[in-house]
Every structure is written in C-alpha cells, then in structure tokens.
Write a structure and sequence with these properties.
By secondary structure, the chain is mostly helical. It folds into two domains: about 60 residues, Winged helix-like DNA-binding domain superfamily/Winged helix DNA-binding domain (Arc Repressor Mutant, subunit A, Orthogonal Bundle); about 40 residues, no CATH class. The chain is about 60% helix and about 5% strand. The protein has a three-stranded antiparallel β-sheet. Helix 1 crosses helix 3 and helix 2 crosses helix 3. The N and C termini lie far apart (about 45 Å). InterPro entries: Tscrpt_reg_HTH_GntR, WH-like_DNA-bd_sf, WH_DNA-bd_sf.
Length: about 120
C-alpha cells in the first residue's frame, strides 16, 4: 500500500495542515488500516518536497489527536480507530463542511450553525 498525499501549493492552507487533514481522513475512513506504518519524517518530507519540520509538526498534531502513535525507533503507525459512532460522526461532519463550503459560507458562519445544531440536539 502506498500512501497518496496531494498537497496544493496554491492553497491558503498550510502544508502541514493539508498533510494532517489528509492522513487523518485516510485513517478515520479506514483507507489507512490500524497498524499501517507511516513513512519516516525525513523520507516523507523528501517525497513530498517539504521540510522535515513540516512533516514532524503534522505527525505531532496527529499523535496528539490520537490518529497515529509513535513506537520509538520502530516507527509511526496508524492508531486504533475510534468506535463506529465516532467514525460516522466524523463522516457527517466532513459532509457538512463540504456542503457549507460549496454554498460559499464562511468558516465562522459554518461553525456557528454547527454549534447551534449540536446545542439544539442536546437540549431536546
């Protein structure tokens, strides 16, 4: 299995965030299976044409989020996925984000609408 990451240099999103997002989505969707060994920081940086610190920052953030785990010199691996409900919620959130972006809403408006919906659902 080859890890396919496509970074957009013209995007307003930082490269480390693009990398973090794509790895997170691949792991949470199951496209990257639990236990999949990620490339080394230096190797991945060379492959992607990024600075090693950029890949390291993405890996640190992913580890803090529980998406990946570092096992010392053995490498970095996709961590055990969250439960099915969490995966479904993440997919629904991605679909919502895609939809509001297509509609041209700002991040602030999209987040506010999502917060209102969650608040209303939990107050029922």
């Amino acid at each position: 299995m080859t890890l396919k990451i496509a970074l957009d240099p013209d995007s307003g999103t930082a490269p480390y965030e693009q990398l973090r997002t794509q790895i997170s989505e691949l792991a949470r969707s199951g496209a990257l299976p639990v236990g999949y060994r990620l490339p080394t920081v230096r190797g991945f940086a060379e492959e992607l044409g990024l600075a090693a610190n950029t890949v390291a920052k993405a890996y640190r953030t992913l580890e803090a989020d529980g998406v990946i785990e570092t096992r010392g010199r053995n490498g970095t691996f996709v961590a055990a996925a969250g439960d099915a409900a969490e995966r479904k919620a993440a997919e629904a959130a991605r679909e919502y984000a895609d939809q509001v972006k297509r509609l041209g809403l700002s991040r602030t408006t999209a987040a506010s609408l999502a917060q209102d919906a969650v608040r209303a659902a939990y107050e029922e």
